[in-house]
Amino acid sequence: MQTPIPTLFMRGGTSRGPFFLASDLPSDIATRDRVLLAVMGSPDKRQIDGLGGANPLTSKVGIVSRSNTPGVALDFLFAQLQPEKDTVDTTPNCGNMLAGVVPFALERGLIEAQGDTTTVRVLTLNTDMQCDVTVQTPMTSNGRQVRYDGDARIDGVPGSSAPITINFLDTAGSVCSGLLPTGNVVDTVTVEGEGFDSFMLSVTCIDNGMPLVIFRATDVGRTGYESVAEMNADLELKKRIEALRIKTGHLMGLGDVSSKNYPKMTLIAAPREGGSICTRSFIPHVCHDAIGVLAAVTVGTACVLKGSTCDGVAVMSAGDVTTVSVEHPTGEFSVELGIDPTNPQNVTRAALLRTARLIMRGEVMVPEFVWNGQK
After folding, report:
1. What 3-state DSSP class applies to 374?
2. CA distances from 218 to 20, 233, 238, 270, 309 (A)
3. What is the C-alpha to C-alpha distance for residues 216 and 201, in angstroms, rounded to an integer?
4. d(C-alpha 107, C-alpha 366), whole Å
5. Stretch 148-153: mean pLDDT, rounded?
6. What is the spatial distance between Cα 197 and Cα 52, in angstroms, rounded to a whole number?
7. Is the distance from CB of 347 to CB of 304 less than 8 angstroms?
8. Which residues lie closer than 8 Å to 67 by C-beta, 6 or more apart?
9. Predicted confidence (pLDDT) per residue in 253-291, tens digit
10. What are the residue ranges spanned by the domains of the chain?
């Protein structure tokens, strides 16, 4: 016997996974996590017995409900799973999966379309962050429906889709105590570990939607233009990055991060495709084929901070509104930042473009020994 759970399987940005109504999942967190592991087929390298795609980017889950917060329509809980681990992490955000929240809510009848476009305020429960998400909802013969086809393109996703605009309202210190959790724009860190010589490195520890540790690729003997395959095969570099991540996790007030999915580690280099900065992002142990939404926001923020590790590397334009084009292995990601004219290091707004698509609707089956459907 198995327990059926209604789900919509959706792509959000450059990620994908099943979306659920919170009311369709167990109320007990431990049971809910066992259900999600069974749904995705973790832990297993191939996730052969579930919906997971054998990659952190396709091992994600969205949980949505109506919000009780004044002025907010929807609550969103993001869950990050890993192919080979039995962990369900609901601490960080995911801006890519966030793009699927409003389409999911419209499809499931949690909210109603407002007109040709629908703007909905969403609260991300992981970090208590609010944002306004706008999707296209044109009139059809069946009433107003979410539009998925369109001309918007994002690198890392083939073809084009209808645009989804996300305007983040307050991202500084999403997980950490503030934008610069160490209190410094740059920290010099000495790292020791097994399998490599100790080294000293200048890093920017920053959290404007996603905790990141940003450092120059040349400072670890790399160009920053290596392919994803080259980065993932570079075991010596990965050992050094993980030792650095554990060390900076404590500096950022995050405690022991050895079993956590953050901070993400980002190598930077000068742009070479006409953008603002070039990145290679580890999430946290695998090099990202692109870069996460909130990681791009945070990198963009570091680019406008005088004295950060991006200073002197990034190519920036002047003005109260700055578009930062973040280059990544499969293209670029543009982030629009609002800058306080009285304090050029204060980012007042972050907006970006994503797309989403409903791939499948139906029921996912969970073995009864995992959950018998009782609340």
Report:
1. coil
2. 43, 18, 15, 10, 12
3. 9
4. 23
5. 95
6. 37
7. yes
8. 73, 74, 75, 123
9. 999 999 999 999 999 999 999 999 999 999 999 999 999
10. 2-163+356-367, 187-352
DSSP H or E run through 136: strand 129-136
Query: Number of helices and strands (H, E) in the chain?
Result: 6, 19
Give 30-88 pLDDT, tens digit per residue.
999 999 999 999 999 999 999 999 999 999 999 999 999 999 999 999 999 999 999 99
Q: Do domains 2-163+356-367 and 187-352 have the same CATH topology?
A: yes
CA distance 76 to 359: 19
Looking at the chain, how many residues does it have?
375
Among 13, 102, 5, 28, which residue's Cα sits nearest to residue 355? Answer: 13
Token output for 86: 């039995």
Alpha-carbon distance of 49 to 60, in angstroms, equals 15
**Cβ atoms within 10 Å, residue 86:** 11
The Cα–Cα gap between 141 and 138 comes to 10
Can you identify the CATH homologous superfamily of domain 187-352? Answer: Diaminopimelate Epimerase; Chain A, domain 1 (3.10.310.10)
Structure tokens of 300? Answer: 């963009």
pLDDT, residue 343, reads 78
Single-letter amino acid, residue 100: G
Give backbone dihedrals phi and psi of 89, rounded to 5 degrees, phi first: -100, 115
**Paired residues of 333 in beta bridges:** 326
Instruction: Classify domain 2-163+356-367 by CATH number.
Output: 3.10.310.10
Within 13 A of 66's CA, how many CA atoms are on the CB side?
6
Judge contact between 295 and 254, C-beta under 8 A: no
Q: Which tokens go with 57?
A: 């980017």
